[in-house]
Amino acid sequence: TFRDDDVMDKRPAIVVVPGGGYAMVSKREGEPIAAYFMGKGYNAFVLTYSVRPQAYYPAQLLQLCASVDYIRKHANELHVDLDRIYVVGFSAGGHLVGNFATDYMNVNEKFGKNWDIAATAAGLCYPVISAEYSVGSFQNLLADRTDAEKKTVAESIALDKNVTAGTLPSFVWTTAEDKVVSPINSIRYIEACLACGVKCELHMFSSGWHGLSTCDELTNDFQPFMTRLQNWLPLCETFFSSIVK
Fold this sequence. Notes:
- This protein is α/β, with parallel strands linked by helices.
- The chain has helices spanning 31-39, 59-73, 75-78, 92-103, 107-111, 136-141, 147-156, 159-162, 184-196, 226-229, 232-242, and strands spanning 11-17, 43-46, 80-90, 121-125, 170-175, 200-205.
- The chain has a six-stranded parallel sheet with strand order 2-1-3-4-5-6, with helices on both faces.
């Protein structure tokens, strides 16, 4: 948790969900992102979710939902504005955030919960969207299932196939040169959002590889081309600020 205890005003909150192919949780996509948003006046929370072989779908989705529920139920003591709760994820964490963004309204009924998990908007950073375009993360996420079960469940959590009008407003960024998670993932998700009338924004930078996080020397062996990519952070933050519930 990253928050300024000297500030008593209600602040926006953001849950940061790192990537790692559902096999690990990347530290590079956790605290550095939280620190940026804290500097912009957010209370930031980093979700270290369970991965293979300790846990498989839907454990990760339920952990993210439980985190949002906790923040909402403790909003007064955490000084959180309930109308400004955001989630942002990277790579496989982007899939997890997208899974939340497209399915949060069904979670209580589907899994027998009674959670308060309303959120305001989602950020998907070079995200995995579907097993059709990015196989590895799904192999880890669904490794405990038979081949037949894997196909069925993978289709049920293919984000581009599950966007509805109720999907959270979504900010997406990626790079055209990403060889690990094809930018086609992001394009398909945005196409689905447009088809359903979901407020969305896509930024595809021409240069850059997968996993750039903050795009600076804090998380990378810095190269000059990254300077322009750092704009994704203020672009994302202003997108979030533009969403009024």
